[in-house]
C-alpha cells in the first residue's frame, strides 16, 4: 500500500469567480490590460496523477472530448513539467470534472494548476509557489491565480497576482451556467466598441471586503465584459433578475461568461434560489451550489 501511495498524488483544481473585472487598452502582444479581483469558490475538479511504466503521458476524463492532446492545457502542463525538470517514466492523469466548461470560471486553468502542484509533490521537486506560478503563466493567464487561490488582485493579462490583506467574507454562491458559450475574443472585441458608464472601484471593493460587508461587496461588483453579453443574450438579464429577487447580496456574470452567480449571506435563501432556478431553467443549464473558499 505504501509503495502505491508514493506513486500517486491527488490534487484539486478550484473554480474562480470575478468580483470585479476592469479592462484597459490593448497591449502590443494583442491582449488587453486587465485588472480584477478574483475569488476561489468550493467548486472543484478532482485530479489523480499516477507514475506509470513506459514514457508516455496519458489522460482520462469523465468528459471524453477533453483528451490527452495539445488542445488540453492541463495535458500541456504535464508535458512542460516533464521536459523542464527531466522527469523520467510515464504519467497517467485521471480527471473528474465538476466545473462547467467554457463558463468564465477558469475550469481549464484550475485543472492546469492542479496538475502543476500535484506533479511538484509527486516528483518531490520542492518548487515554491512563485516558481509554480511562473510555470503556470506560460500556459494561461488565469493559472497563476488558480495556483495561489483565495482573494487576489490580478493584473497584466491576469497573471500578476497579489493577495488582498483581508480575504473575502464568507458567502453562499449560486451559479447558473447556460447551455451556450461566449467567445472571449468576441467579448473583448465588443468591449472595444462600447461606451463605459461605470468602471470597477477596486479600492471601494477592497474596503467592503475588509469590513466584511457583503452588501457593500455586492454594490461594488462590476464586470466590464458583462454589458455586451447582457445585450446579446437577454436570458442573462432574466437570470440576474431572478437571482436578485431571492434577496442576493450581489449578482454578476463571471469573467467573459456566460455563468451568472449570486452571493447570499443566509444558507436558507441560497437554497431557495437554488431550488427555484433548478425548477425553471432548461435541463441543459447547470445550476450549482457553492461557497466562498479562502485558503
Which structural traits does this protein have?
single chain; about 300 residues; alpha+beta; Ribosomal Protein S5, domain 2; Alpha-Beta Plaits; 2 domains; four-stranded antiparallel sheet; 11 helices; 11 strands; disordered N terminus
Walk me through the structure.
- This protein is α+β, with helices and mostly antiparallel strands and 295 residues long.
- The protein folds into two domains: 162 residues, Ribosomal Protein S5, domain 2 (2-Layer Sandwich), CATH 3.30.230; 120 residues, Alpha-Beta Plaits (2-Layer Sandwich), CATH 3.30.70.
- The chain is 36% helix and 29% strand.
- It is built from eleven helices and eleven strands.
- Strands 1, 2, 3, 4, 5, 6 and 8 form a seven-stranded mixed sheet that branches. A four-stranded antiparallel sheet has the order 9-10-7-11.
- A hairpin with a 6-residue loop joins strand 9 and strand 10.
- It is globular and about 55 Å long.
